[in-house]
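Final report, closing paragraph on structural work. Over the funding period we assembled a curated collection of sequence-structure pairs, and we close with a single example.
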Amino acid sequence: MCLGCRQRAGIADLVRVVVVTGASGPRIAVDTAKTMPGRGAWLHPMADCVSAAVRRHAFARALRSPGLVVDQSDLKEVLYTRSGDSTDESGPNGPEQVAEDMSTP
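Its predicted structure, as stored:
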């Protein structure tokens, strides 16, 4: 379930985030491989969902980290564009590869 829009979606459509502790305290990290240890939270990689989750302080509750403060700029790597907002056709796995038509006339 997405933290931002609260809609159910498949794992392939969502991005996992976890809390990592550093010298400056707990911070949010994007788990691109979806294998980092600890409690994770899921959200759509869209600006609307990220801003809604930040506005509602959903990360601290979902990740059970009361001192966690998340800024939307911390989640830039989540916000790759899928909705066609940019002219670059690259997604999370790089540019789309299209095969040439190899059929005989």
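The chain has a mean pLDDT of 78. The radius of gyration is 17 Å. We thank the funder for supporting this effort.
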